[in-house]
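G., the chain you wanted modeled:
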Amino acid sequence: MAWRHIMITNNAKLSMKNSQLVIHQDETITIPLQDIASILIEAKGVSITAALLSRLAEDRIALFTCDQKLVPNGIWTSFHQHSRQLSVLNMQLSLSKPFKKRIWQQIVQKKILNQSACLEYLDREGAEELRHIAKTVESGDNSNREAYAAKQYFGYLFKQSFTRRSDDPINRLLNYGYAIMRGAVARSLTNYGFHPCLGVYHDNQLNSFNLADDFMEVLRPIVDFNVALRQDEEWSVSTRAELVNLLNMDVSIQGEKYAVTTAVENMVKSYVACCRQQDPAYFKLPDLLPLRVHQYE
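Predicted structure as tokens:
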């Protein structure tokens, strides 16, 4: 299974030879394509061959681009690689509103529980309060417990005056990490044949990744945890590399440890079972753990 997440921070030429990614810089580096899950390009002077782009799509390797502020703003994913693309699309279109509301209820509950765990691991106040809020989430979260929990959570995590809409260094780091998680989810969804614009809760007609935005909610506390641990808010290559490397951190699904990348695959795979059986009980969502790099056997 692919596990490497490559970050290109200096100008380079990217090509392919013998099923290897070839990075031409001052030195030439080769990496087996079968090991790569994603490539993030920050440097503006990077060229990439058409042959490599085609191979990335075939091997379902996500390619991120960044804006002028070095925040991911685009993702290249495979197009219609699933063997039963139409049947998956029809399955998505046929999902009932009650089914989607129950899926969203589980996502919101798990997100709030992971926020609670984040506060607990950081020895902050509010963990028990959030666990209580999670118990009150209704089908479809009609009472908007998600927003209420978020307001309480960020107040405990950073400071009471903190808001997600403010233009400050903390939000810059959060947005970068969230974009990485969103891309990882989008990659997995397209690999399983889902159309990411068809969400269970998010339904913005201008958003091509509504379903990815649904599923990534449970992963946001992983990013929050990393940013809250920082003694400074430095915007450096090493800081951004750590945020990308969060995809290799341990999380838990039903007591088993997985890297985030693998956990996302398992989450999406379980959603396939949910949809086929029309039963949200098959849904498997990751639990936050203390930040440790996953040890591959």
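The first strand starts at residue 4 and ends at 8.

Shout if anything looks off.
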